[in-house]
Each structure stands twice: as structure tokens, then as C-alpha cells.
Amino acid sequence: MNEISSKNPVFIHSLWRGASTYFFATFRRCEGVFAYQEPLHELVLAAAGQPELLVGTVSSDGSGLRHPNMDFGYFHELALTHSAWKDTIAKDLIYDRYFVVEPDLRLAAFFQSLIGAAPRRPVIQECRCALRIGGLKEALGGTHLSLVRNPRDQWLSCKINLYFDAVIQLLQQGQQVPRSLRRLWEKNRIIECNSDEIADEIRHFMRWPLKAEDSYRAFFTIWCMVLRHARKYADLVIFVDYINKIDGKCEEVERQIAEVGAGEVSLRDCDLFMSQLPEGVANWFHIIERDVFNDLAIDGFEDCEIRDAVATVNALEDLRLEVLVRDPERSLRESLDRTQRMVLDLLDHRQQMAAMHRDDAWAKLQQTIDNGNSQNQEFKHLMVEIDIEIDAIAELVGAVNIERAS
After folding, report:
1. Domain boundaries, the chain
2. Domain range 3-259, its CATH number among 3.40.30, 3.30.1890, 3.40.50, 1.10.12
3. How would DSSP label each residue in 297-341?
């Protein structure tokens, strides 16, 4: 038995804001486990030449991301094994090849370096391989868990900052992008940004976020693709919303994790938030989801795959209603708290965007002055674009305020 198979790695796959950090922290506490947190993160790429970046990357309150508290930084294990993987990570592996489902030898080599360097059984939690399970499984074996959260709350949770929307856009300029996402890209006339630095690309898309409807359309399209891929390749698909909301479900999931060979864990403190959605907001989500299902059918999803996605969403919405009926006061209190935090987050986002656009505008103006020529028309056009984007944010703030009022 070779070194990789003898260590039998566990992979935890998820989209962002899908409880993956909770699962990472849970496995990390287990005896005999060496857990890696998001080794394909762009900060890890930067840290290949600057390992000090991996130190201290977490705060006691989860850095505002509502992550579980941890004794060590997110990338503690990556810092310990830096010499083993620093020459195997590459920029295009992170986002450019997200939709490439074929086995990727370079990606496998990167993960193999992590597996080989782990002093105990390696557990790898990653949000950038949810559509690459098949290739990784073929190349590396291991046990693959896929976490699925209800798409509506997951997308709303992504609004905690500008990063997650930007990353979803960044994925859409990569290789083998599905046709439905390419059509959405062309409809919004999104300008690509191909830089040597991922941080520059993310910053570019943070400047020009999609309006709410198109943002959810893109997210939900990827969510459906991830669900289909997980059904086909993952050893276990875990619907995280059900844990500790349905009697006996927590114990069932714990047992399933052990049965597929991923070890024994306790999920007793897993409690994902499900918000109250007023009828108008729920209908807004439903209309977009229906359109995405139609697009996916056109693009090659089988009827059974569409039916599975529809049934999954409907079942999760039934769970939302059950939670509301069971404890309406807690549900209302948590929803109001979340709405208030979202409003504050959105106001922060608006300020951040205004600052970024202001910096861009001043830079262009200074360039105009320095060059000694007049570019007033270009400057005015930039100001118009800023106004359009601020109006888009105001639209989203208005939607949140409607939810809060309801």
C-alpha cells in the first residue's frame, strides 16, 4: 500500500458559506487528524514565497465571518508543512480551472504534497474543488464528503462582504465555463481582468458587483452543478441544514461519516441559521431558480437531474417552514438580527466601493494632469459608471429593508 492510500485522506468539499469551516474545525479537534483549511486559497499561493503570511490568520470572533473559534490560525497546518507544497501550487489551479472536471495532474501533485507531509491522517477542507471531486478521486483516492446548504441562505450569507460575489464572477472568466454562465457574463457585459495577482482580479470584480438578480442567478447555477457533481462522485453528500433541526439527524450524519471511512466526529453543536423569508422575497428566489432550471435543461442537464435539484430545494424550503412553526420567536429574533447585520454590511460595502471608485477616479484624473492632455470625457464616463453601481447597491439595500419591515 502506497503512502497516499495508507493515509486515506478525507476531502471536505463545499461552496463558500456552506459550513465547511465548521466541519474543518470539528475534524481538526479529532485525535489522529491533521487538517488543512482551504489550501487552494489565494493567500496560500502568495505565501509560497512568504510563509509568514500563514501565521495568525484568524481572530477570536472568526474575523467577522461567523466562523467557529479556533485555537490555531486557519493555515496553521500549511505553515508547518510549507516546504513540502510551496513549489507545487500554481495560480491557474485556484480559480481558472474550477470548471475543468478532467483529472488534473498538477492539482493532484499539489494535494499529494499535502497528504505526504501530513504527520497524521490528512483532512483537506476546500471550497474551490466542489466541481473537481471526480478527478481528485481518480488521482488520489480518499474519502470525499460534499456539504450542501440551502442556496437562499447560503447566497444571503455571502453578502457579509464583497469578496464572495467577486469570486463567483472570477470563476466565470476561467476555462470550460458552462454556457449558461457564459450567457450571463455576456448579458452583463462583464469586463475580464487577467492579472498575475489574484488579489488584483478580485479587487476588479469587487468594484463592479452584479445586481442582486444576476448575482443569485450565477450562484444558484453553480449550486445546481455542484449538487449534480456531488451526487455522482462524492462518497457522502451532507445536507447541513438538517443537522440538529430534525430529531435523530445529527446521529444519522455522524454514523454515515463513520461508515464511509471518514472517522468519528461529533456534530452536536452544528446549528446553521435559516432565515424567515417573506412571501415576496421567497417568490423572488423562486422565479430566478425556475429560470435557472430552464437554462440548465437547455444546456444538457438530464430531466432526472433537474427533478433532483427541484426536489432538494423544495425539501429545504419545507424545512424552513418547519423550523419557523416549531420556534417562531427564535426564528423571528434571529432573522431580525441577521437583517440588521446585513444592512450594516451593505453600508460598509457601499463605502468600500465608493472608496475604490474614488481612488480609481483620482488616479485617472492625476494621470490626465500629468500627461498634460484633456480626458474629461473619459473621467465623466467613469463618474456615470460609479453612479450606476451605487444605484445597484441601493436597490439591494432596499430589498433587505423590505424583508426587515416584513
Report:
1. 3-259, 330-406
2. 3.40.50
3. HHTT--HHHHHHHHHHHHHHHHHHHHHHHH-HHHHHHHHHHHHHH
